[in-house]
């Protein structure tokens, strides 16, 4: 079953879009509100299918671990995001398009990890991105700014698409094939500068969708104005698909050539610039969603740091650290956005200063939010701590001054993040409200849905579990080895 799941899983997710479209189009309005639960159950079924495929074969060779690992994260976060959307999408609106586009985006993201050639990777990334462009504008009637933010994302995304396609074309002209398995040999006699040009174009093209600095400007508005379920999959699910696309494409480079080292240096430069810019920009934000959005940019820098270390120092641990932290980040940041949305519903605004004491007033969501923030900071007993520990270790085991410097840069950036995480936690939990929320009701305030509470709690539990029992996910290491690009000797 593992060999054929690369075809079945994306098709099953896409088929779910047809089922949900039919249900939402022809069922009475009273039933349409349950499309979120139907979508979540469909994704859970695909998640279980892939889990059954990977567990019995965890020690076998030839298993597409990278596709299965990415697929589990994508369908898992997708199911949580769809469930959190339950009751939040107007059943009388174009709900027949929301969940099918949602599923189609996830199908493309899952397909990336099973692709065997560069063009299929490119098509899968675009299949994942195009529905998200539309979903970002879904709330344009109630939020006119949603259309502008989606348009900005679309324009920048198209530029990235053209750039990535140009990189794929350069690699094809150089190697006369697009199959990942055949390209290392085909490119071994090609001018390294041509291979490097293709690699850089692919990194920059997909880098737009990863929101690396300075191609990050679309992200804050898109995250803040998209429906919360869409933000959840943009943060974790679709980004892991693009991340896999980048390094699966780079795995086609020939071993033993300086081009791999040069590409790794380029990634490290992007990583350092991205994490530093994201953290510094987050310091000045007053909106909780903006704080989380800019910190997402910084987190992507941390992830790329691991992969860059792996390429520059010929270290598979760097790839394992980057992939592990990407998975941890996907869960932690999706949960943080879901919790922030719940706080915004209760407060009637997403301004941090208007959320005084809101975490204490909603203890379940509040505790979950603390777990996510602690994980993003790197507090022990969370998956974020182990992820950063692996990244630090990857830098230190190089036994080189440059590796120590990279580890130090990561530590400094983690310290900078305290400058915006600590004030947020202080406001949400330790500052007293200026008024009585019961005696001074606001039309903007709403009750936090039970679906949001359940979704946030589930992600918080997984965040702690992955931090305490990382050995339960040995296939992450196998997946990292399949992404690993052999460096220069």
How would you portray this structure in words?
There is one protein chain. This protein folds into two domains: 1-254; 256-489, no CATH class. It is globular, with a radius of gyration of 22 Å. The chain has helices at residues 5-26, 29-32, 35-54, 65-85, 95-112, 118-136, 145-175, 183-187, 192-210, 219-225, 228-250, 258-282, 288-312, 316-347, 358-361, 363-377, 383-396, 401-430, 450-468, 475-483. It contains 20 helices and no strands. The protein is an all-alpha fold and 489 residues long.
Enumerate how many helices there are, as a single number.
Answer: 20
Q: How many structural domains? A: 2
Strand content: under 5%
Q: Main beta sheet, described?
A: none
Low-confidence stretches: 436-441
- The CA-CA distance between the termini, in Å, is 37 Å
Helix-residue proportion: over 70%
User: From the helix content, strand content and strand pairing, which structural class follows?
Assistant: mainly alpha
Shape: globular
Number of beta strands: 0
Kindly report the average pLDDT value. 85
